[in-house]
Design brief:
The complex is a heterotetramer, with 2 copies of chain A and 2 copies of chain B.
Chain A (H helix, E strand, L loop, with lengths): L3 E3 L2 E3 L3 E3 L8 H4 L9 E3 L16 E4 L2 E4 L7 H14 L4 E6 L4 H12 L5 E5 L10 H5 L1 H14 L4 E4 L7 H10 L4 E4 L3 E4 L1 E2 L4 E2 L5 E5 L4 H12 L6 E4 L5 H9 L4 E4 L9 H16 L12
Parallel strand pairs in A: 3-4, 3-16, 4-7, 7-8, 8-9, 9-10, 10-15, 15-16
Antiparallel strand pairs in A: 1-2, 5-6, 6-14, 11-14, 12-13
Chain B lengths: L5 E12 L2 E7 L9 E5 L10 E4 L2 E3 L2 E7 L3 H7 L6 E8 L10 E7 L6 H7 L3 E8 L6 H4 L5 E6 L6 E2 L13 E5 L2 H11 L5 E4 L15 E4 L2 E4 L6 E3 L8
Parallel strand pairs in B: 8-9, 8-12, 9-10, 10-11, 12-13
Antiparallel strand pairs in B: 1-2, 1-7, 2-6, 3-4, 3-7, 5-6, 13-16, 14-15
Bound molecules: flavin-adenine dinucleotide (2 copies), flavin mononucleotide (2 copies) and FE2/S2 (inorganic) cluster (FES) (2 copies).
Chain lengths: 298, 244, 298, 244
């Protein structure tokens, strides 16, 4: 009943674990069977291993949090060798979330991923926490367009481009990416944000700004998904502050085919199961046979 | 499969010293000394993150936490009463190495005393505790039965040595040291013990997931960035890189 | 000690009541003496009286709220006759918040305000809740620049331009407005956002989207004030989710000369007094003689 | 200058019927029937807005509220216990016109009964109450001493008339009607009473400030948009424009 299809691939349900909040699934699999999820987006990968940022990485804000992890990850090769084997044995759709600071880095990463069992590449052109870590690509349409075009040329996997809410114009950005070959879009990544330690008289984070996520951003993220769904014709994965089934349904009604749960995982490790169950109950109650019936209904 | 985020029913939650609370929950809880739980005493979204709190003791059918009210999360928890419920995730982290024996010093600063009762109860060596506080000593009465000596220091001298606890501690008397407290204190302990006696420190950091997935709680070690919630919270002292 | 100066005018303290959350001060004055504030920004005025929007106008979100009031107001003349007399007898700096849907509307409004005792015109080029209610002006730099340039020509009052966080590029927008003659800037207005009723399968608000405000947006608003303060040299009034003295100090450290309290007024009517008191105590504790010492310190 | 957002200490907070709570606070509170307070039973930011709740009764040194747990705000309030504090702003709004006399009907649907005890106590006419509920009747025992007759209807017929309360009410018997309940009920009452007897209705809307400043709670009236928190919550029935 909750099945959805993205670019020919079937997901058991529309609930995907969001990149960076779920590792490579192993830790969460100790708490619930992650095969119950529709999919998992991996921690953001870069071509080479990265240590990530120093200093405070997590800071709580009203109904949300800021993070500045800085893409700590084992590198694409490390992922393929150490983490993918665990995931590929599972009945779950895998999105390899890929960041990069240069075009070449993206392209080499894609080539390595081409020959693996991952299902989608989720191209992160929007990580705000690394200097040139993709952020620059996610703001202006023309730079985004260039990366996506080249990525599409080399990618053998369907390409989902993850948009930044910091983009100057989210509709134009979405349109540009699709125009350049994006097979799907996911949005939003975190909002560029600031917090200051008033006693130290310094920003909380070493990088000055960091990425804001969680329920606090949901109303804005939902608006962006709605706007984007009006201008593109590819599947959209809605992300931003989703913590319950109502949130998920709102994103679907705004036009999303699937949704990702990020910060919500920190409230309760199996929050996604609650969301899936809630969606099922809502569908029964409302006599909805397939989520297609309500997708983009507003 | 591990137990999930579960509810605990509060058996008691009492202020044992100004701003210091002892929280006891009923239920069948697990964990070794030095491990912690993520506590959540509210159903809403602000505060957003759960709070990491060490296991202070586990007895049959009960778990004890000792916590200091610092900000909003601990404030809300402190208002909970007998019969109220609380969500917990745990036990998390590595915990102290329990294989050790010999003459062991536990050095604590402030609320860093929290994991020491359970540790003292479970360790088999000869244990001496050195506890520093700002004004009031607490929790030591419960620890006393399980240790050989108790040394206290307070900054205002109201009880025990006036000054820092590290001033009355001699590393040469010990074969092993466990330290838990503010970073500056732990740095002093490490400096004093360097080349004399091995030290294990329990580290703190802001946490989101608590289970090793978000990489939010990492600290710098000689092996690179490591997660306080997974590789820690207990680290070999010489492996931690302190930068200030 | 808490005194600040904006464009030659002295404010007792940097705390100003934000437009639309404080009416014309009368209702709040029943709860505390509003003369204790540094200033008040009036409910958004338009040349002609407006009834505002129908349907739900207020909707709670995590740590914030969405509103779609639609600039219900008595019109500039009505304000001058009915509401200004109460305010002008007070020892408080008055910002007349002015919206408009056409350039002419703005200009006529300014001319009426020129001959009154108000201290500043706060030009609202950013209200998301009225069709053409200024929103269109607040997104693209060139349209904003045009309005500000013309407004500046006719205004005899110092002109503070209130920026929308929905602007494509907040730094370029700030720069354009100052270039066009803005004497000061205030930011941010509300974020364009969406909420959906999953049972009615319709947006909560009749206008579909509405404006998000409150503590949820603070980290983003603070980042924007910081960014703007790096590119302009005029006084900045920081707005967005301020509910305590720490928030206020953060905005000042990010470069603001004064701050406005909006949604915070809904938590506690005299929340601004707590903020003022908190700022004073912080200054004493930290040995700060004037807020100038910490302005833009990060 | 009016009293500000103040704290009240909870004297009791008990569930008198499933999901229906009676909350009594100690303190010197003011207000007339039909006025309300904005309640806030939490120190944090989610839920963000305070909740408008009518005065159910005021006696020397005590105020009573009657509320139904609907969403998160009322849920949190329902968890508060004797001795806990709560913030309140009020009294707010216009309240019922207390000059009226004669044969008066109070018509309520569900939790719309909340303001009626205080109203019945203070009105001087001959009062008859008509209360509709889904399954369980509540609060009427307290009101009974102050009214001439009590009529009840429940949707499941468990007590009183089976069906809607409006089915057993005849407008011709009265000189004045006060109605409080769900909008559809009030619309029926207005239709029935039109041209026969004047009706006052107590309206609801989402509120932010509660004091007339934000214009968030307006409803359409024949005079234009008016604030439920200031010109209301009590309006002359024929002045309200219902659109659905
Ligand atoms: C492994 C571990 C074990 C701990 N054990 C105990 C214990 O047994 N007793 C005790 O009183 N305290 C303990 N702490 C510290 C405790 O977690 C913090 O004091 C608490 O999270 C502060 O929350 P708050 O809501 O009071 O403060 P706030 O300032 O409102 O917290 C804001 C955010 O910062 C985080 N934060 C603030 N200070 C700390 C800190 N020192 N460590 C980690 N996160 C912090 C909070 O978790 C929260 O996310 C432990 C910390 C860790 C990491
Ligand atoms: C003047 C007035 C007097 C009232 N008196 C009473 C009373 O005596 N007893 C009682 O049980 N209820 C009363 N209500 C309704 C009560 O305010 C709502 O049921 C309550 O706000 C719901 O909050 P929640 O947290 O349970 O629900 P949520 O769904 O979490 O509320 C979300 C938001 O919507 C608002 N909201 C939701 N429903 C309503 C509503 N019906 N009216 C106004 N705002 C709403 C809330 O205030 C909050 O801002 C009154 C409402 C008004 C306007
Ligand atoms: C701790 C943390 C780490 C994240 N790391 C990544 C990442 O590596 N790659 C990425 O594309 N998004 C990353 N994100 C963004 C999330 O995937 C998601 O887009 C964002 O948090 C908004 O969703 P949420 O509000 O549900 O958290 C991260 C978010 C958090 C909180
Ligand atoms: C109910 C409401 C009405 C508002 N009306 C106006 C307005 O008329 N003109 C304007 O410039 N801003 C208006 N605003 C925006 C606020 O002035 C402020 O910029 C915004 O709410 C962010 O600040 P906050 O988070 O402190 O509320 C309104 C905000 C709210 C919540
Ligand atoms: S808190 Fe997420 S990795 Fe430690
Ligand atoms: S709630 Fe603000 S005007 Fe009524």
């Amino acid at each position: 009943m909750t099945r959805v299809e993205i670019l020919g691939l079937e997901l058991k349900n529309p609930v995907i674990a969001a990149s960076g909040t779920f590792g490579f699934g192993r830790e969460f699999d100790e708490y619930f069977s992650i095969e119950k999820l529709g999919g998992i987006s991996t921690k953001g990968l870069t071509l080479n291993k990265r240590d990530g940022n120093k200093g405070i990485r997590i800071y709580e804000t009203p109904s949300g949090l800021m993070n500045s992890i800085g893409l700590q990850n084992p590198g694409v090769k490390g992922f393929i060798e150490e983490d993918l084997p665990f995931l590929e044995n599972m009945d779950i759709v895998i999105l390899a979330n890929l960041g990069g600071s240069t075009l070449d880095e993206y392209l080499e990463g894609i080539e390595l991923l081409n020959n693996t069992s991952i299902d989608f590449i989720e191209l992160n052109i929007s990580c705000p926490n690394v200097k040139e870590g993709g952020m620059a690509f996610g703001i202006k349409c023309n730079t985004a367009e260039r990366v996506v075009k080249e990525a599409k040329k080399v990618s053998k996997k369907p390409l989902i481009v993850k948009l930044s809410p910091n983009a100057e114009n989210i509709q134009e950005m979405a349109y540009s990416c699709v125009n350049a070959g994006a097979d799907g879009l996911s949005l939003v990544n975190t909002f560029n944000a600031l917090a200051i330690d008033v006693y130290k008289r310094k920003p909380i984070f070493e990088n000055i700004t960091a990425g804001l996520s969680g329920p606090c951003i949901k109303p804005i993220a939902l608006r962006m998904v709605y706007e984007v769904s009006k201008v593109v014709n590819v599947p959209i994965i809605g992300i931003g502050g989703i913590i319950n089934w109502r949130d998920a349904i709102e994103f679907i009604m705004a036009g999303a085919t699937a949704i990702q749960v990020g910060s919500g995982n920190f409230i309760k490790p199996d929050i996604s199961l609650d969301i899936i169950k809630g969606i099922e109950e809502y569908m029964k109650e409302e006599g909805i046979k397939s989520l297609e019936e309500i997708r983009g209904i507003i | 499969m591990k137990e999930n985020y579960r509810k605990g029913i509060i058996y008691k939650n009492t202020e044992i010293s100004p701003n210091i609370y002892e929280l006891v929950l009923e239920g069948d809880f697990h964990g070794i000394p030095g491990q912690f739980y993520m506590l959540r005493g509210w159903d809403w979204l602000d505060p957003f993150l759960s709070r990491p709190i060490s296991i202070a003791d586990i007895e049959s059918g009960k778990i004890k936490f000792l916590y200091e009210v610092k900000g909003r999360g601990t404030h809300i928890i402190s208002k909970l009463k007998k019969g109220d419920t609380l969500s917990l995730l745990g036990p998390l982290g590595n915990g102290f190495d329990m294989q050790m024996e010999g003459r062991i010093a536990l050095i604590t600063g402030g609320i860093g005393i929290a994991p020491m009762l359970y540790l003292a109860k479970k360790l088999s060596g000869e244990i001496h505790i050195y506890s520093g506080f700002r004004n009031n000593a607490y929790f030591l009465d419960q620890i006393r039965p399980y240790v050989k000596t108790v040394k206290i220091a307070t900054e205002n001298g109201s009880i025990g040595h006036k000054g820092f606890i590290t001033e009355i501690f001699d590393p040469k008397d010990f074969e092993l040291v466990y330290a838990c407290g503010p970073t500056p204190m732990m740095e002093v302990v490490l400096k004093m013990c360097k080349g004399i006696v091995p030290v294990f420190v329990s580290m703190e950091n802001h946490m989101a997931c608590g289970i090793g997935a978000c990489l939010g709680c990492t600290i710098e070690t000689i092996r690179g960035m490591e997660r306080v919630c997974k590789e820690g919270p207990v680290f070999k002292g010489e492996e931690v890189v302190f930068n200030d």
